[in-house]
Amino acid sequence: MRVRLDDGTIETFEGALLDQFDIRQFKVMDSQAYIGGYHSNRPVVMVFSLFDRSTKVLPGLYVNHMELSSIELDEARREVNVLVHSSKRRCQFSIRTYNYETRPLRTIDFSNARNSLISGKLLPVNERESILVGNYSTDCTPYSQGVYVTRIHHDEPATAADDAIRDMQFIEFSQLKNFFNYMKPERQQKILARAKRKKEEGKDYKFRYRLLVHDLQPTADGLTLIAEVYYPQYRNSALTSGAYMRGVDRYEGYHYTHAFVCGFDKTGNLLWDNCLPIKQLLSRDLTQMVQLSQQGDRTILAYPYEGAINMEVFQGNKILRETEKIKLGTSRENERIMFSARDNLMAWYGRHFLAFGFQKITSANQAIPREVFYLNKLTYDPDLPQTGTADASIRKSVGSARE
User: Nearest-CA neighbor of 160 among 149, 147, 150?
Assistant: First the structure.
């Protein structure tokens, strides 16, 4: 579906995709949609034309033991970059570039880098260069040791890989000023002291962080990187079979511990970093829960939790406002929210966010609680004192067209 912002006209385009296609990525450039995912555990990027409703598959990606990191569009050059990571051949990471007509143009291979690159995000900074940022490990595992940053020179394809590897900066988590601020001060000091001691012994301290890296956000100075730190959470439950009892790990979801944000200039130099602690947030699906809103030189990070929005305001390395909890309201004064589920948040435009999910609400006039889908517009001004509540914008009962 395409919506024209000038007059609100809606156009719908229909086409056929592969059966049993697990979709993970979706990007649009001009009149083509790029849909990335997995088919039979192998990556696929399909190109859907809005002009004639035809579909094509980008060549060279449907192989075993390969993960689709991201699809990055360069609209100025009319190119699509597919970033892939292989668990074979020393965890090879590469950028495969195609033109608008889906023809392969070049491949930049990072297998000779000092560390194993896990993921990557690209952002064009001028006609000649793009910045590549992502996370890396030291032992070909999904556990990150830090973040890396380098420049890709588009006008030098023959030496682009060598130049990018030579200029690559590896920033270990212990080098960030605020990465461990989600911990208590005593624990922070212990981890940093242990990492420093290992470094003095000529060894690497092994961090075990899994990162969900967002798309890079352009700024006047360069770009902003945001990533959420998580781990899969399991609960051990006992199952009895006859006279025997055995423990079974039951998957519960993804537990988010904190998010961190880094500012880089247009040449890839780290300018600042900061951290947003996340408490008790568990999601069945691995999705981007933390949202970023850039307002001038201030950065706002926010995430939903149990019918409220937690927000924090940064200015570079400084915390301007500690975490504030803003409760979502109802559409009627005499209503009360009993519980909230599947809460989501999106940074919309300017100072506005969209909060949505499902709630069960009750009131003095109703004996039976109502289940509703809610959609709230939240306007956050960091210069004004907070009331602790947000007004409800749209609220619709589940399964009812009259509400």
Answer: 150
